[in-house]
Design goal:
Number of strands: 8
Strand content: 5-15%
Distance between the termini: 88 Å
Helix content: 25-40%
Number of helices: 10
Bound molecules: 2-acetamido-2-deoxy-beta-D-glucopyranose
Radius of gyration: 22 Å
Structural class: alpha+beta
Keywords: Signal
Order of helices and strands: HHHHHHEEEHHEEHEEEH
């Protein structure tokens, strides 16, 4: 009996001291193929979440290994998803992205610099301090040691939904040559109708600077905020922001004529729905689309952002002249459209 216990202990020690392996993100040009354009049904709707129970049964990250640093073990890649025959490809993927976002937000994870939110770091000062996770006073969670940051949130959404494990370093996810996912889009911040569900929007650190260093990533939900304090109520959305960002967001809401859209991101105290207002609109740079993109451009089309030698993604705002050129081009296209009719 003693011998068995000793052997068991030895075995456990061996297992625990094994270093976690590195699971590199895949080089995303990945979209789910198949489906039938325009077709939709309640069966399609149901099929967007049908395999969630199976996915929940899979390990999110490598178990029983010693993390090499405070980020913990890397996330595993979920299996690739497939679309049932008679469902519109874009709608299926967009619906699934929304369902995954909903699911992750409901977990009430914290904001942590971790690769996998289910991983609970060892109870030591090295692994549990306010530089790694938002401290308890900011957190609305019972277990504030389970969390993810912004680019791990975007990656988890696409990984869980489609088995697409994006590069989780913010500069790389935004503008890493050959590593940034999907296709870059230079959508003007005031043309919100051009964003599509699932687009990843990149935000700079400081609204006032030019060029801006990209520090944040959010997902476009396409949901229009409503009045009040429901899930998508503007009061709730503003309350989900860091306290020092609420005033600017409220000001934008008060002054803005059009609809206020809901974005989903991990910031401040974890993954949640927040308003596309205030800092987000002020420091928005460009976006990337992973769904409904058609053939990928290679090299990536210009986004105004560049990966620098010191490992940053720097975005230079277009000059007013360039903006005017864009507007003029659009006007010309409109005119061409009118004359064709
Ligand atoms: C990523 O994909 C692009 C486009 O297919 C390819 O040219 C590039 O070499 C790939 N990069 C890596 C590191 O595999
Ligand atoms: C967006 O609209 C606001 C308000 O009209 C304006 O101040 C701002 O310059 C616009 N931003 C861009 C990038 O066009
Ligand atoms: C939400 O708004 C309703 C209606 O204004 C109010 O009665 C209720 O107390 C609010 N709930 C919270 C949690 O603020």
């Amino acid at each position: 009996m003693k011998l068995t216990l000793a052997l068991l202990c030895f075995f456990i020690t061996l297992v625990v001291s094994r270093k976690c392996t590195y699971h590199p993100p895949n080089n995303i040009s990945y979209v789910v193929t198949g489906g039938k354009s325009g077709a939709w049904s309640s069966a399609c709707e149901a099929s967007t979440t049908a395999d969630f129970a199976y996915r929940d049964s899979l390990p999110e990250y490598e178990q029983n290994c010693t993390p090499v640093n405070t980020w913990g073990p890397q996330a595993y890649e979920y299996p690739r998803a497939s679309i049932k025959e008679q469902c519109d490809n874009t709608r299926w993927q967009q619906t699934r992205v929304l369902r995954v976002i909903e699911k992750i937000i409901a977990k009430e994870y914290n904001y942590c610099h971790h690769h996998a939110p289910k991983w609970t770091p060892p109870d030591t000062p090295e692994f549990r301090n306010s530089k790694i996770c938002s401290p308890p006073e900011k957190s609305r969670k019972k277990n504030f040691w389970n969390g993810i940051d912004c680019t791990h949130f975007t990656s988890l959404v696409y990984n869980y939904a489609f088995g697409a494990h994006l590069n989780t370093a913010t500069p790389m996810q935004a503008c890493g040559v050959d590593f940034a996912p999907g296709k870059s889009l230079t959508i003007n911040v005031n043309k919100t109708e051009e964003f599509e569900i699932g687009d990843i929007l990149f935000i700079g650190g400081n609204s006032a600077s030019n060029p801006l260093t990209i520090t944040h990533a959010v997902i476009w939900t396409g949901i229009v905020a409503v009045k009040g304090n429901g899930t998508f109520g503007i009061d709730t959305l503003i309350n989900n922001l860091a306290p020092n960002q609420r005033k600017a967001a409220q000001k934008y809401v008060d002054e803005h004529g059009g609809p206020i859209y809901v974005i989903a991101d991990s910031h401040y105290n974890g993954p949640n729905y927040r308003p596309f207002a205030g800092w987000y609109t002020g420091a928005y740079t460009f976006a990337r689309r992973l769904i409904n993109i058609g053939p990928l451009d290679h090299p990536d089309q210009p986004s105004g952002a560049k990966y620098t030698n010191d490992g940053k993604c720097m975005y230079t705002r277009p000059t007013e002249e360039e903006e005017d050129d864009d507007d003029e081009q659009e006007e010309n296209e409109d005119i061409a459209r009118i004359f064709r009719i």
